[in-house]
Write a structure and sequence with these properties.
single chain; 30% helix; elongated
């Protein structure tokens, strides 16, 4: 049996207020071609289908049109979609009865019966091969919130530990249910939207699921009978430690400038009976480039020279590269944006972000204030002076101190 594993589409996402519908559509069109070319039996989409809990009508149409086209082009294809932490469980499940008629199972949340028992069977989904026979059982587990998992009532740190233990218990119950259904030669595949121990996060675009690192789950929660675990949440495609069968597919497009060097991909999973045979990354073509100019923050004169040297062919606005400009300053530069925009005139790129840094930084404001009580007692002009020293390593010039005082007097 052959599966394709993908996740973290974030349909409807914008990058610094630029719409990304075109990039997502290019990916979905490519994925349709890939499903056909690879002769996939099933497609697993492991959460964060949408970028937020209230997706636009356009992004919802984009998803449902893709699901319809995928089944039309590969009539025997099984599709399993689980919700991520960005998705609304109810919204993503709402069209479930219609989608089921077309081979798509959508699991948005954990359901309980009248006495509060979790409906484990609902999350164990059969996957059929091209002959129409059940070849695998999928543990279609969505992002789990504390109320979703079996656990005793606890508070504080014990509640966090109980939450993690509850996630492990839910997976154990789902695996036990799948084992009871499995026939010889059938595999067990798990899905999850979570942060595993040893998983590498993106710097800018991934939302912490709980607090600190306490939400990280151990690889051991997937039992020995799980042939493959298809994970979502982390945008960098990666396997977990030495566990080659536990993998994040990563996001199909860079969702922030910190992801410009990621190798975006979909994973092809080949199963031989109940065992994992092979995992093959399939690179996703990048429809729109993200550029950091320069690669490290540099003085403004160097930055302007590099911007003026950019040379891209004409393209529609929606297909032009995004640019993050990185400037090293030793003092404020009031005309910074206008100078950068002038250097980019006619370059067929989109200025998405200007990132400024300073060569010298003093002690942090909190360090300088010693305590939060003392910080609360500082006057606004003192806060301004300390922040200026922290960022630029010297005293604020008199004209800027005077301008700040004017703003205070004006009540801004």
């Amino acid at each position: 049996m052959r599966l394709l594993h993908t996740s973290d589409w974030h349909l409807g996402q914008s990058l610094h207020n630029f719409d990304r519908h075109y990039e997502h559509q290019c990916f979905l069109d490519w994925l349709l071609e890939t499903i056909e070319a690879e002769q996939a039996d099933a497609l697993l989409i492991a959460g964060d289908v949408f970028d937020n809990a209230n997706p636009s009508a356009a992004s919802q149409r984009q998803l449902y049109r893709f699901l319809q086209q995928a089944r039309a082009r590969a009539p025997g294809l099984d599709i399993v979609v689980t919700a991520g932490n960005h998705d609304s469980p109810g919204r993503i499940e709402a069209p479930g009865p219609l989608l089921e008629a077309h081979g798509t199972q959508v699991i948005g949340h954990v359901q309980r019966d009248g006495d509060g028992t979790i409906d484990i069977g609902r999350m164990v989904v059969p996957l059929t091969n091209r002959a129409g026979a059940v070849a695998a059982w999928c543990l279609a587990v969505p992002f789990l919130r504390p109320a979703d998992v079996p656990r005793a009532g606890q508070e504080g740190a014990e509640a966090v530990d109980g939450y993690l233990a509850g996630i492990a218990e839910l997976y154990a119950q789902a695996q036990a249910h799948a084992l009871a259904l499995r026939q010889p030669g059938q595999a067990i595949v798990a899905m999850g939207h979570c942060h595993m121990v040893d998983g590498q996060m993106s710097a800018d675009s991934e939302r912490r699921i709980v607090i600190g690192g306490t939400e990280m789950l151990p690889a051991g929660m997937f039992g020995a009978d799980v042939a493959y675990a298809a994970l979502g949440h982390l945008h960098l495609a990666q396997q977990i430690g030495r566990h080659g069968h536990i993998r994040y597919s990563g996001s199909p497009i860079p969702l922030s400038f910190s992801e410009v060097h990621y190798q975006h991909q979909v994973l092809r999973i080949d199963l031989d009976g109940g065992a994992l045979q092979d995992v093959v990354p399939i690179p996703v073509p990048r429809a729109v480039h993200l550029l950091r100019v320069p690669s490290r923050p540099a003085p403004l004169a160097q930055v302007l020279d590099e911007l003026e040297a950019l040379d891209f062919p004409p393209a529609p606005a929606y297909a032009q590269p995004f640019v993050e400009v990185r400037v090293l300053l030793d003092a404020p530069e009031p005309g910074l944006r206008s100078r950068i925009e002038a250097a980019l005139e006619g370059k067929h790129v989109r200025l998405a972000k200007i990132d400024t840094a300073s060569a010298a930084r003093g002690p942090s404001l909190v360090d300088a204030a010693v305590s939060l009580d003392q910080l609360a007692q500082l006057q606004p002009d003192e806060v301004f002076a300390r922040l200026y020293r922290q960022k630029y390593g010297n005293e604020a010039p008199p004209d800027q101190v005077a301008a700040f005082a004017e703003l205070l007097l004006a009540g801004v």
